[in-house]
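pasting for the record
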Amino acid sequence: MPDRPLRVAIVGAGYFGQFHYDAWSRMPEVEIAAIVVRNPDAAAETAAKWGGAGAPLPVFSDAATMMEAIRPEIIDITAPPEAHLATIRAVASHAPWIVCQKPFCGTLEAAREAMTLADRHGARVAIHENIRFQPWNRAAKALIDAGAIGAPWQVTFRLRPGDGQGARAYLDRQPYFQTMPRLLVHETAVHWIDTFRYFLGETSGVYASLARLNPVIAGEDAGIILFDFEGGGRGLFDGNRLSDHVAENRRRTMGEMWIEGPGGTLRLDGEGRLWLRPFGENTETRQDFAWKDHLFGGDCVHLCSRHILDAWLADAEPETAGAAYLRNQEIEEAIYRSAKTGVRIAV
C-alpha cells in the first residue's frame, strides 16, 4: 500500500469512461484527481459525481496543462483512439504509469510510435483489454489449465449483441461507431483476438471474410475469422452485430462460446454461466465461480484495472502490457489483409 493514495487523471468522460471512474473509485490505493476532456462543459456531471468531499473534480481541456497542475502518477486514457497518441506524447515525460483503452491509438503505426515515446521516457503502458478479465473467461482458463478438457484444440465465439440494426444503430451509446471505417474487427473482435491468445497461445495465421450489413454505417459489422495457433489449435470468431442471442442482458457476454478438447467441451451461455460436458456424455454440469454483476461484463473493467495496478505496485508487467499488446494489432492488420485479398495470412 502506498504511503498516500496515488493520483489518477482520467482522459475522457464518455459512455465507457464512466466504468473506469467507477473502477478507480473502488481502490483505496488511488484517488481520482482530475478529468481531461476537449469540452470542459461536457464533463460537469462527471466531475460532480466523482469528486471527493462534495467538491467537483478539476477539469482540464488538455493533458499538458493538467500534468503541470496535478502531476498524477497514473494517466487513464478513455478518450477515442484518435486522441491516444497525442495524449501519450503530452504526458509520457512526467507520468510513470499510463493505462490506455483499446483500440490502442487507432493504428498499428501510431501504437508503435506511442510505445517508442513511452519507452524513451521510462513510462510504463498497459492496455485496458478487459474481456480476458471477465470472470467466466478467467474461470474457463483455470479449467483449461487444470486439464478439464485436455489440451484445447478449438475455441469458437459467436458475437451477437443485437445492437447494429437500423438507422439509429449505436447512436444511443457510442455514436462514433457509425462513422468508423473499421468497426467489427478494429473495435470489437480485437477483444477476442486477445482472449483467444489467452486461451490457446500464439496465433500463427488467420483467414477472414468481412461484410457490411447495415448500410448506414461506414465499416464492417459482420464477419467470419479463422485462427491457427502455434500449438496446433484453431479458433473461429463468428461476429454479427445485427443478430442477437439468448440473454437477459445481451451486453453481458456479447455472445456464446465453446472451447473443445479431447476431454470434453466448455460452453459459455449469454447469462455468464459456464458449463462442462465431458467427452462422450450428454449432460452438462454448471461450473461455479464467483462474480459480480456490476456495470459491464461481470465487473471486468474493475478487474482489469485492479490487475494492472497490482502488477505495477509489485514492479511486474501486467498481462496487457503495451509492448506485448502490439501483437493483437498485428493480428488485426493481418485479418484485414486477408479479407481484402481472400487468402490466409501468416502472422
